[in-house]
Amino acid sequence: MLEVRDLCKSFGGLDVTKKVSFALEPGERRVVLGPNGAGKTTLFNLLVGELLPTSGDILINGASVTALSVDQRAMAGMSRSYQKNNLFEDFTVRENLALAAAAGLSKEKWIARDSFHDPEVREIVLDVANQVALTDILDAPVHSASYGNRRQLEVGLALATRPKILLMDEPTSGVGPGMIGAFNKLISDLPRDLTVVIIEHDLDLAFDVADRITVLNYGDVVFEGTPDETRGNQIVRDIYLGDWQADA
Amino acid sequence: MFHQTPARSFTLAVVLAALVAYATFGGFFAREIVIEIAILAILAISLDFVAGFGGMVSLFHGAVMGLSAYGYSVLTAKFGIHPIPAAFAGIFLAASFGAAVAAIASRTSGIFFIMATLAFGQMLYTIIFKSRWLGGDDGMGGIPRFDASWIGLDFNDSLQFAIFAVFGIAVCYGIAALLLRSAFGRTMCGIHGNEPRMRALGVSTWKHKTAAFAISSAIAGVAGVFAAQHTQYISPELLFWTVSGEVLIVVILGGLGTLVGPVLGAAIFVLLKHEVGNYTDHWHIVVGLLLIVTVMAGGRGIYGQAEHWITGRSRKARESLNA
Ligand SMILES: Nc1ncnc2c1ncn2[C@@H]1O[C@H](COP(=O)(O)OP(=O)(O)OP(=O)(O)O)[C@@H](O)[C@H]1O
Ligand SMILES: [Mg+2]
After folding, report:
1. Are residues A238 and A203 in the same domain?
2. What is the value of ipTM here, to two decimals?
3. pTM of the predicted model, to two decimals?
4. Which of A244-248, B221-225, B312-316 has the highest mean pLDDT?
């Protein structure tokens, strides 16, 4: 589904992504782990085209998308959420979701009809609002919403384009345990054919939702395996020392 | 996001009715003023469309209007082509030029975008200014108005032409409002709000911005056709950058991103110019002071400020009812 071959990225002299390779099966849930500054967000930026790699190749269903622009890759089925909220602050939650839904349906260019009143767009808006638990504040302006709600909307925007590959960058950062549980449920309720990559710091959540786990450290893939293999791996223990020894 | 609120519809209706009344009862000079207001208002609508809702502030809308005026004038006065197809050709020319400039300038943003539009506008001005075939700085005359005798109207009559120009405001406003309420307009507002995110959602933002500019330029082209027919004589002055600067002031004065504000702004601007101009040549100072006051008051413009007060007060009233 999504394949990365020998992907490299350097900023000046700093190598942030070093020959990263992996392949995701359709419908796979992959969690990317790694300490701060490991290059996780940079990897996402490379995948969606917000950064261009120094070398290497990115493929969707066997076809290279490395030369495609951000919007073309989105049209090819990739969608992401951001580590730092990246929303349409002045619009309502509903308007945010409708913009994304219309773009996902390629209805954003209509000049004679209003996408906000399109039945398909409305259906997606209500569906996604339900998924990310924002139904009650659909008509609130985003800038007045709580941090937690904005975090939910961040994921909602990525879902509303109805992607084939969903990339989520620390969706639970800065939220409480209640929301982590709700998020866990959201992931398990996603359609099984949706391929998902999640950057996550919460290890319980990671082990719970992942089919496979990739561990990045200083731009290198230092480990890849199932959650069980990850728990027992010494390199991973060294990097994440102490973090989950208690409950392992 | 654009909303055609009842307050906006009401304001538009009042301004248009006042213009028709002024033209009807005010004599020849009033009609000239109404036509001048109509041309500026249409140009202001076209600028607000991209600047207020798309976040693309331009300094070449005067040049685009002038290009359409020249297109119409050359085709009618030099080649004897029927005014109706000539008007469409002029508008199409304006839209094409706007699209070409935007395709280049849309890759930049902020001040670079403004500078790029200024440069292209001035380039066009210089070309026309230097062209002897187009009359150079003398301009060209003998430009006909539409022949509307087939519906029993005579646009050489100043009242009928003035009312036709006010009708032009209504049509251009209607087109702009419909487009802003379409998926296309929603997306344009989204690009203004957060362009990188819009791109990440799968929208080719520069293509969208280019299309938005083509539409805006077509509306500016309508103003150009009216301008050429109004004086039946045109000169390169129409394309000079100060015209673009003036309409930008009108938009800000009336209320950037309110669509009806710029129409009101155009009326106030032209009336001030003539009323204050009766007493002093320094009417610009009065406009400048008014602009400073509106910017200091929050930058919402005259209509935008009024809307802000009214919605603020009605919210307070609702809250005290609930309390
Ligand atoms: N545009 C840039 N220019 C220069 N250096 C950058 C740039 N973006 C990221 N870096 C550097 O690359 C490294 C990896 O950053 P990245 O944001 O990918 O890490 P991360 O794994 O997402 O970390 P975190 O867990 O803190 O989000 C860091 O050292 C960062 O300073
Ligand atoms: Mg990160």
Report:
1. yes
2. 0.93
3. 0.93
4. B221-225
